[in-house]
């Protein structure tokens, strides 16, 4: 902690960088009034407490760093209580002054590093070491703040976002470390319930903080989708679990209006769906646009990651036997009745040719769906052969127009359809390596499909033959 606090000797440089940061960046996540108030409060408290001994150029001399460190450590370990009556001064007092927390220091370090890397006129020789130090302590303060705080705070979330943005600039968007940072930030947001509209109730959160949280969530939603596309990974946050509204398109100054009347006047100038009417681009404008764009991106990502619905051959064979076979028996019987009695017809809308074609497809599927390693193969082959023979008889009668009654072979020979499955067949399939031709199908030549389907009990058969 002493090392972290000792970096406050750069306070004049940090102040300069952050002020230039806000003069150049118009879509900053953390509102300018909040950060500048924290910065001002930090300096005022250090001066009034006698911790700043002197100031020369871009450095200050700090005294009693151990005492500052102990104060920061104690404050960072206490819970932050947000009340709906908080204003900007009350909010800052929770994180700065006598309650200076490690995440506040880290936020200032991180924003100074981003400003120095992005916007400030740099001296490579002098600023290079400063940026490296600020990046290191930015990451260190983030880890320490999460470890110390009983629950994540708004400033921790701001720090995590700024740290992820900084690391993304230094390491590139394809850095796995940045993806992990975005994941940790997502966890913080979900833990605090920022994805639920109930979190932003006026009974729980002051208006300015609710809007800041909305901006934070929609920005993180955008980052998460962007990095998900970079890494070709599914989203962590999906819109089906989100009901938070878009932040209002207010400027930072309007958001922190001095009186309720000024705030209501600013809100009255917005459209019904929350957009500004003066055509200016604000931080909230960018946040709203990115959130809308990210919803489209989520649809693209989800489409790319839909689970394939490839059929399981073993399950498919069972379905064909248990569902398709009974339907085939009914349809083939209906066709056979037509050949025997020309006065009978199929229901309206059902063509004979369509039924025959579908039965042929089913017979083909039954003949090929089960592999030689599956015990269902014997059932499938038997059913396929029975349907094929039934169709041959029906087509033959249609072709010759000789409607002769076909005797019930199963009834006349007293051959039970299930008894055809002899132990010899089962033993031939036990090893699972024999060819299909090794199965003797001569006994399947003549039996009635309807009777076979009625007597066929897949559940009882499973007790004798294990289905793969």
From TrEMBL:
<dbReference type="GO" id="GO:0003677">
    <property type="term" value="F:DNA binding"/>
</dbReference>
<dbReference type="GO" id="GO:0005634">
    <property type="term" value="C:nucleus"/>
</dbReference>
<protein>
    <recommendedName>
        <fullName>Xylanolytic transcriptional activator regulatory domain-containing protein</fullName>
    </recommendedName>
</protein>
<dbReference type="Pfam" id="PF04082">
    <property type="entry name" value="Fungal_trans"/>
</dbReference>
<dbReference type="InterPro" id="IPR007219">
    <property type="entry name" value="XnlR_reg_dom"/>
</dbReference>
<keyword id="KW-0539">Nucleus</keyword>
<keyword id="KW-0804">Transcription</keyword>
<keyword id="KW-0805">Transcription regulation</keyword>
<dbReference type="GO" id="GO:0006351">
    <property type="term" value="P:DNA-templated transcription"/>
</dbReference>
<feature type="domain" description="Xylanolytic transcriptional activator regulatory">
    <location>
        <begin position="176"/>
        <end position="254"/>
    </location>
</feature>
<dbReference type="GO" id="GO:0008270">
    <property type="term" value="F:zinc ion binding"/>
</dbReference>
<dbReference type="InterPro" id="IPR050613">
    <property type="entry name" value="Sec_Metabolite_Reg"/>
</dbReference>
């Amino acid at each position: 902690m002493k090392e972290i606090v000792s970096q406050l000797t750069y306070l004049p440089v940090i102040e300069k960088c952050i002020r230039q940061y806000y003069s150049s960046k118009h879509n900053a996540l953390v509102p300018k009034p909040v950060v500048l108030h924290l910065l001002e409060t930090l300096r005022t408290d250090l001066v009034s407490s006698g911790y700043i001994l002197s100031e020369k150029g871009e450095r200050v001399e700090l005294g009693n760093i151990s005492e500052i460190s102990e104060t920061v450590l104690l404050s960072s370990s206490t819970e932050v209580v947000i009340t709906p009556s908080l204003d900007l001064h009350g909010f800052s007092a929770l994180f700065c002054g006598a309650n200076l927390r490690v995440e506040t220091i880290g936020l200032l370090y991180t924003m100074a590093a981003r400003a120095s890397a992005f916007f400030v006129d740099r001296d490579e020789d002098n600023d290079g070491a400063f940026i490296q130090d600020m990046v290191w302590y930015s990451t260190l303060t983030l880890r320490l703040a999460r470890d110390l705080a009983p629950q994540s705070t708004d400033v921790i979330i701001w720090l995590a976002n700024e740290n992820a943005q900084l690391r993304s600039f230094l390491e590139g968007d394809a850095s796995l470390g940045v993806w992990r940072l975005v994941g940790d930030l997502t966890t913080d947001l979900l833990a605090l319930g920022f994805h639920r509209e109930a979190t932003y109730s006026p009974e729980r959160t002051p208006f300015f903080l609710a809007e800041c949280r909305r901006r934070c969530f929609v920005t993180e939603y955008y980052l998460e989708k962007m990095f998900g596309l970079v890494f070709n990974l599914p989203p962590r946050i999906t819109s089906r679990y989100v009901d938070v509204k878009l932040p209002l398109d207010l400027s930072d100054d309007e958001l922190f209006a001095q009186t309720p009347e000024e705030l209501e006047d600013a809100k009255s100038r917005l459209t019904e769906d929350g957009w500004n009417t003066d055509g200016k681009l604000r931080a909230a404008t960018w946040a709203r646009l990115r959130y809308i764009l990210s919803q489209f991106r989520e649809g693209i990502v989800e489409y790319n990651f839909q689970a394939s619905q490839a059929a399981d051959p073993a399950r498919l064979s069972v379905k064909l036997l248990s569902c398709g076979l009974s339907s085939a028996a009914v349809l083939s019987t209906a066709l056979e009745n037509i050949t025997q009695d020309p006065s009978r017809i199929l229901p309206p809308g059902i063509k004979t040719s369509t039924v025959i074609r579908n039965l042929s497809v089913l017979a083909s599927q039954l003949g090929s769906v089960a592999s030689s390693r599956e015990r269902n193969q014997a059932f499938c082959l038997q059913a396929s052969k029975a349907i094929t023979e039934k169709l041959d008889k029906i087509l033959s009668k249609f072709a010759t127009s000789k409607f002769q009654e076909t005797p019930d072979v199963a009834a006349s020979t007293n051959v039970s359809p299930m008894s055809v499955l002899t132990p010899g067949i089962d033993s031939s399939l036990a090893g699972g390596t024999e060819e299909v031709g090794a199965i003797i199908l001569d006994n399947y030549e003549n039996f009635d499909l309807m009777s076979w389907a009625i007597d066929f009990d897949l559940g009882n058969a499973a007790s004798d033959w294990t289905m793969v």
